[in-house]
Amino acid sequence: MSGDASGDVRSIGIIGAGTAGVAIARRALAAGHRVHIATSGPARRTGLVTRVLLTGAVPVNAEELPAVSDVIFVCVPLRHWRTLPTDGWQGRIVVDAMNYWPPVDGVLPEFEHADLSTSEVVRAGWPSSIRLVKTLNHIGYHDIEERARPAGAPDRIALGVAGDDRAAVATMAAIVDDLGFDPVDIGPLAVGAALEPARELFGALLGRDDFRAALQETPEQLAASRARRP
Ligand SMILES: NC(=O)c1ccc[n+]([C@@H]2O[C@H](COP(=O)([O-])OP(=O)(O)OC[C@H]3O[C@@H](n4cnc5c(N)ncnc54)[C@H](OP(=O)(O)O)[C@@H]3O)[C@@H](O)[C@H]2O)c1
Predict the structure, then answer these.
(1) How many degrees, rounded to 5, is the angle at CA 26 between CA 25 and CA 29?
(2) Which residue's CA is the nearest one to ligand 1's atom 34?
(3) Distances in Å between the alpha carbon of 106 and those of 82, 101, 150, 168?
(4) Rounded to the nearest whole angstrom, what is the distance from the C-alpha of residue 209 to the centroid of ligand 1?
(5) N or C end of the chain: which has fewer CB within 10 A?
(6) Backbone φ and ψ of 103, nearest 5°
(7) Which of 39, 72, 118, when mutated, tests ligand 1's pocket best, judged by the most ligand atoms within 8 Å of its CB?
(8) Which residues contact 103 (CB under 8 A, 6 or more apart)?
(9) Considering only CA atoms, which residue is closest to atom 5 of ligand 1?
(10) Domains of the chain: which residue ranges?
């Protein structure tokens, strides 16, 4: 994988240093971006992760992320969404990489609305000025590292990017490209439901054209997807 595709070095903030957060951080570092990463604990505790797995990333306290980040990736289990320090995120591009996974999260009544994407629910509960984008939730952490490719590689796969703030989606599309994937702008957050667990695109490793085709789920496929919800 070559370096930064966009040429812009960005400051990437990540909250959550588990499997997803670490994989995204590693790709961002490989692309030449600056990475700050936080958990619910103090920075010194996250330092163990950065020393062992993320050479070059800087551990910080969660409250410090906005001051050092152009974009904040949220990579924590969804059940913690209300506990995050979102007051400091006002006006920021924030990436919702979370999924509603009842076997892990338990049943969360607010996400039991089949007609709303989980990102719409989260946006409604967070400060309204947050520029929320949904992406990277629908690819496994191992594929984030193993399937990243330089732009133009014949086996490069696509990732969907959804959001109501079109400029934020464009920024995130450039970062997805930097991370090693073909970004596909799929439209507003509501359409982001197509990237959620049990839907056709969740975990799908498809090139850009096949990804766009799979986005057009038939009513029968949609019903089957909903029947598969975890
Ligand atoms: N695993 C994947 O392949 C994958 C891929 C894409 C997206 N996702 C999504 O990404 C999210 C995280 O998944 P994961 O598998 O990476 O989980 P994980 O391995 O359990 O890691 C979760 C991380 O979040 C931190 N965390 C938990 N509560 C927090 C809080 N209140 N404030 C700050 N940090 C907190 C945890 O650290 P502390 O407990 O020390 O705070 C830990 O570093 C989920 O919503 C998942 O659906 C996962």
Answers:
(1) 85
(2) 39
(3) 15, 7, 38, 31
(4) 31
(5) C
(6) -60, -25
(7) 39
(8) 230
(9) 140
(10) 11-227
**Nearest-atom index, ligand 1, CA of 19:** 16
Ligand 1 atom nearest to 140, measured from its CA: 3
Alpha-carbon distance of 190 to 114, in angstroms, equals 11
pLDDT digits (tens, 9 = 90+) for 108-130: 999 998 789 999 999 999 999 99
Q: What is the CA radius of gyration of the chain?
A: 17
Q: Please list every protein residue whose CB sits less than 6 Å from any atom of ligand 1.
A: 15-21, 39-41, 62, 75-78, 80, 83-84, 97-99, 101, 136-137, 140-141
Phi, psi values for residue 202, rounded to 5°: -70, 120
Q: What is the pLDDT of residues 156-211, one digit of tens each?
A: 999 999 999 999 999 999 999 999 999 999 999 999 999 999 898 999 999 999 99
Bridge partners of residue 59, in order along the sequence = 37
Backbone angles phi, psi at 12, to 5 degrees: -100, 125
Superfamily the domain 11-227 falls into: NAD(P)-binding Rossmann-like Domain (3.40.50.720)
Distance from the alpha carbon of residue 37 to the mean position of ligand 1, in angstroms: 12
